[in-house]
Amino acid sequence: MNSKMKHTYLSQLRVSLITARHATTPLTWRALPSDIEFNKLYYIRDGEGCVTINNKAYYPRRGDLMFIPEGCTHGYSLENQKPYTKYWCHFTANIGSQPLAAVCSFPSLLQVDEGVSAARLEQLFERLIEAERSPDPCAPILTQSVLLELLHFYLQAVEPEQLTARPFEASADMSSLLPYIDQHLSSKLTLQQLADIVYVHPNYMVRLFKAQFGFTPIQYLNLQRIRAAKELLMLGKLSIKTVAEQTGFESPFYFTQVFKKHTGLTPTEFRNLPDHGQ
Description:
278 residues; 2 domains; 23% strand
């Protein structure tokens, strides 16, 4: 990708944070490979482990920065019983209507020099964590800004010849489905209902939706439900069962399962974070 093309593509980058944390993994940190619906960024500060991306094994160590793209098959485990201490975040990132990793190809693992670069990276993660937890109604603007800085840090560290571009896929406009989904988060939406809105077969609608936005309608629905649930949980007044019902989950168990998959915390653990002002 030449400099001009890189500028053109990345000028269309749009991001949305799901969650960000600094934590030490438990000794049970392990998951079999499965498809993920969002990007992950790990900055390893200690520990040893194996992280797989599309069946390729990586062994990130202290000082490594790792990008795990949405849509890949991803698994992980510890090595030598040495838990990871790491900064991490989950997020979506799209260039135009396509996921970042579908448009741009770059290394999944980078080594960050200890010193100024490491200090800068830690500062960015700390700011991201603080902004996500802030009750300020304008905080989402800051989270996007800091997340873009993190991605800028990552892509700037990539050798120019390792950053390549792929062509965009053409797709019909599915944008009318977004406000409909947002307005019906508590309803039991079906693919047929959504397909009827845009007058196409459900299977074709799913393909078009994913080509345009980088995730399926159900993945988008769950992301929006999780965001709504986080807002309700931060109020601290409703039971987990009520939050699940008001955000459209069929049961508290399924709600907890999906919430933890996206945030790394159960709803109760998220509610009990000390900086929610409760």
